[in-house]
Design a protein that fits this description.
Elements (H helix, E strand, L loop, with lengths): L6 H6 L4 H13 L5 H4 L6 H7 L3 H14 L10 H16 L4 H8 L7 H22 L1
Helix pairs in contact: 2-5, 2-8, 5-6, 5-8, 6-8
């Protein structure tokens, strides 16, 4: 399970929520990203550093893009559907996809956004599994 491997990035590597999600998913799904590639999501943490869309959510969408887009999003009929499914699942869980709304529900000073990242791992896996099952 994806959530079984994220802690080494979040706690041991001291990465933020977005960086943790992309690194754990890169390992879990074999996305082939290099360290330098994953730096690009660093600014997504803490809701793009201003409480906006949760960095874990944004990195989940980056993972979906890596899994399903071959050349560009316009040529990928699946990316809109799977992204909307992911967003629905986050909204169902938290009532929002905004960091400023999610953080009060799951942040603790001891573990920071651990609970949000665990939930993001579950939602990402559920989304991919559901999407793959519906495609068959």
């Amino acid at each position: 399970m994806l959530k079984d491997i994220f802690e080494k990035y979040y706690f041991d590597g001291n990465y933020n929520c977005a960086e943790t999600m992309i690194r754990a998913a890169n390992e879990y799904y074999g996305l082939g990203l290099h360290d330098r590639d994953m730096i690009m999501v660093g600014g997504y943490g803490a809701g793009m550093q201003c409480g906006n869309t949760c960095g874990a959510v944004l990195s989940c969408i980056a993972v979906l893009s890596m899994k399903y887009i071959e050349r560009n999003a316009h040529d990928c009929k699946d990316i809109r559907l799977i992204t909307q499914l992911l967003m629905r699942k986050f909204n169902e869980k938290y009532g929002s996809t905004l960091c400023k709304d999610i953080k009060p529900q799951s942040f603790t000073s001891e573990y920071r956004c651990r609970k949000t990242i665990e939930t993001a791992c579950d939602i990402l896996e559920e989304t991919i599994a559901q999407f793959e099952a519906e495609r068959e």
